[in-house]
Amino acid sequence: MSYKEFSLKIAPIKSVSPSRFLGLQKCALREIWGLSNSPLLPSLPYNYFGKLVHLMFENSSNGIVNGLPALEAFWAIELDKIEREMKSDELAAHFLPLSKWIKNFHVKRQICFKHSLKLFENIALHKINDGQSALTTYTGPELQLKTLDGKIAGKVDFIRDNGFGIEIIDYKTGAIFEDDGVIKADYKVQLKIYAGIYHEVYNELPSKLIVVGLNGEEYPIDFTKNECAELLLGARKLFDDIDSCIKNKNSSELFAQPSLDNCKYCQYRSACQKYWQNMPASGLFCDLRGKVKDIVPVLNGTISIVLDNDNEDIRIRGINKECHKFYNFIIGDDVMVFNLRLDANATFTTTATTTFY
Hints:
Mean pLDDT is 88; it is low at 127-137. The chain is globular. The chain is built from 9 helices and 12 strands. Helix 3 runs antiparallel to helix 4 (68-87), helix 3 (45-61) runs parallel beside helix 5 (105-122) and helix 6 (185-202) packs across helix 7. It starts with 20 loop residues before the first helix and ends with a strand. Strand 11 (334-342) and strand 12 form a beta hairpin. By secondary structure, it is of the alpha+beta class. The strands form 3 sheets. A 5-stranded mixed sheet has the order 3-4-5-6-7, with helices on both faces. A 5-stranded mixed barrel has the order 8-9-10-12-11.
């Protein structure tokens, strides 16, 4: 069969970000493609909402947005920008308006405002009173940290001095904990690498690493100096290994590590030959490919198709031109389909993120 082929760029990496370190370890190809190519599969609406909330936190902690009226105006402006960006993206346009797709949108908005106001109020603690530091002095929001050799670099949401030592703070707008109640490994590793960078550059180990949730709650992370140093060393080695492979023009497949965890939310798996080669014939996450055998218009305006998948007929229901990246099928086309749902009667149904190639 002849499926659509993608030509994705692989460009040299300038540095490894602490926030992407574990992602690069799990599947370097996904992260490398993401640096130089537009996504091939849709992002979830919550990712756009998270971007909006993070902008609110960033600008409040910078002292740019002051007071509730300013917050409301800033929210409206940035939401409009994000929705216009989504409207121009065929993979995201059907997620408009964003408020329709985010559960308890207006409640989350008010929580965001409350926390943003608190962040702005805390800026006052940055001031020096009578020549002495206040109880908590902020050394800066949105500060860039990078190692002396520039190989590891990223932007920290907030760094503050609590009078007893430096605190590195990271804002998260999604779930912070794993199912077992432990803070997600990605978040812990990210902050520990930042601590390692801070120690290398300023010869001072932070006293606290903190994750802050949408509700404003602070969750400390335990760490040691050795942990931070070892992770920083590992990040450097990872940079050197990937940089060498890219400069030697090694096959992109060397970077791919297909697995349930790595591929589940990958927006580039449609271009990854190793993904198809190492997955079951029906694909994981209800991804399928096959030859179009039949096309059936349905009275509700949707379309149903039958795919010949390794001599097995598979029906896909609910195809809607308004909701899915779609082209006009003809019988005999070789098609790849991503993000389907398998019903109890063994029929596949489209979802909001279903994409066809």
